[in-house]
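Thread: Modeling a multi-component assembly for a lab meeting

Hi all, long-time lurker, first post. My supervisor asked me to bring a structural picture of a complex we are working on to next week's group meeting, and I have zero experience with this. I have the sequence lines for every component (638 residues in total). Could someone generate the structure of the whole assembly? Inputs are pasted exactly as I received them:
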Amino acid sequence: MSLDEFGLIQRFFSRHAAGVVLGVGDDAALVAPTPGRQLAISADTLVEGRHFFPGTDPYTIGWKSLAVNLSDMAAMGALPRWFTLCLTLPVADAVWLEGFAAGLFALADAHGVALIGGDTTSGPLAISIQIIGEVEPGLALRRDGAKAGDDIWLSGPVGAAALAVQQRLGKLVLADAELAHCAMRLDQPAPRVALGQALVGMATAAIDISDGLVADLGHIAERSGLGAQICLSLLPSLPIHAARLATPDWLAAQLSGGDDYELCFTAPASAREQLVAIGAAKGWPLARIGSMVDGAGVAVLDAAGRPVSLARSGFNHFS
Amino acid sequence: MSLDEFGLIQRFFSRHAAGVVLGVGDDAALVAPTPGRQLAISADTLVEGRHFFPGTDPYTIGWKSLAVNLSDMAAMGALPRWFTLCLTLPVADAVWLEGFAAGLFALADAHGVALIGGDTTSGPLAISIQIIGEVEPGLALRRDGAKAGDDIWLSGPVGAAALAVQQRLGKLVLADAELAHCAMRLDQPAPRVALGQALVGMATAAIDISDGLVADLGHIAERSGLGAQICLSLLPSLPIHAARLATPDWLAAQLSGGDDYELCFTAPASAREQLVAIGAAKGWPLARIGSMVDGAGVAVLDAAGRPVSLARSGFNHFS
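Re: Modeling a multi-component assembly
Sure thing. I ran the full set together rather than chain by chain. Output:
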């Protein structure tokens, strides 16, 4: 980057943030953590062509780069506070940067998280964000806390983002309204941060759905030393006309489609009533989709209780 | 990355770290900060072809990726504690990963910092590291604290890394022993973390030399609202036979060569004796090279006090 380019970048990313002792512009940022809290720390990279299509709207890229990191905070029940941004750009294009910054800060402002530092360098387009949140010691929603007999919950329908990818690849055709819904889920996922906070002290384990329901629930099962059973008919409905989709694609999207960023979590049966009440009060479509069992792996059952065979365990849309 | 590749990567990067509540393998890591401290947070990306030559030994890349981040902690006077690693790789090659991890952990272990998370993705080779350190509130070494009349200090000779780059580009020839010294400075810089700690409460401002002495000292000057004057003859000597180098190259390397990761800092005259004593006790070649003055910008003077003209303000070796 030339000095002019650095100036351009500074213009879009230097903002004063409340609660930050020293922000962008020194060797490091300084922040004051809340006394008595633990830090939850996570980092994720998005690479062009791998995590988003070349030519994607920069607003979307900015939004999504932060969204996937906020989603990790949600899955820990952590309150997100600060993030750093490492941006690798082929060229410093003012229009692109303005769009990227608008998407990034729209979501950052909605969640009260502050950009405190990072760097910019020349190279193939990639975005690495590191996020830091706070959580009460001992109360984070880890993957390893599920107990046999716990209910398995999902925060909303999954599969829409994967269907948007399939449409963009020309592999299926959605109606306009359906595509609008699915594209929004893919491009501007809403991280379930408020839900994650609400689950602290109630859920026994949680994960966000980034790689697909079966794969991600599998992580809870494995880390908790248990198996998981979910029932297809209990999955929350997507606003898609299912009859138009081939069954294997439909199943794959719901069970293995990534990028939805809903939360999957476990909770004891004693928490059911409270979860239903919270869902109703907040308008969250929480669905109880199965239970944790002794054993290993994730079993998917149809309405008659028969195992559904999963042709593909992954649904890696860019491969 | 395939699942097999993820397994490979886990093999090299999953290590238990003391002082970490929950490490790699959940949605986020959990750590317990030291009560009463502020957090110093920084992030830097290295991109192949931009920050290191294609084909560079992976040990070197691992070492240097962490070194540049530790250097930011040094420049703040912060004690580095934890870091995340976002690794973008064209292919998951076991030999490459083993070398990279060896270099990374050699330096991490030397400084007692723990790798707590991050991610790995496919794409052009790039490494983003985010580092978190701790510092006493109000005592961080910022860039904006220099006062008129303060001495300007340098922690050691600068320019060797730039000379190694010039040799590798075929632009100059160094003797074998000289090259060995310069290459080590370029490939495995030693972040001045202990010095940074020692300067807390004594230095008024500090920065690490990553972009070149004049450029980086310029940041202290600008942020402190002052000018800086340094004297060429006071710069600590490089172990290079100067007579063999053309004067412009020689000047450019010392004044504008990046990648040395020495610290440049300011301190009141009253701290001179103590700084000399610390340097002697620790074997640090601290050199007093000039002083902060009213005005703006960085002036470089020769032994007779005449301004040296800087043909190039930057020495961007990969451009």
